[in-house]
Write a structure and sequence with these properties.
Elements lengths: L16 E4 L4 E10 L6 E6 L7 E3 L4 E2 L15
Antiparallel strand pairs: 1-2, 1-5, 2-3, 3-4
Length: 77
Amino acid sequence: MNATGLMHRSHPWLGHMVTDSATGRRGILRAIAPEGTTPAPVAWLAPRRGGIEWTTAPEYLTDPTPIAPTSRPEETT
């Protein structure tokens, strides 16, 4: 992961469906960034059809949707 603006980190799975192995929930990876005053980055996920985002540790991200050169990130609408 590399740092980008606003303390966000780049990640190859941004915009793709992933599994949060801590909860078993699937969502779209929206960002890797700090939460509040915590300096360690967390993964921000959103349900595919919209709803309340949640956070998890980046190491709990698994099972991304297949990523190919022609695949495009998903939206939460």
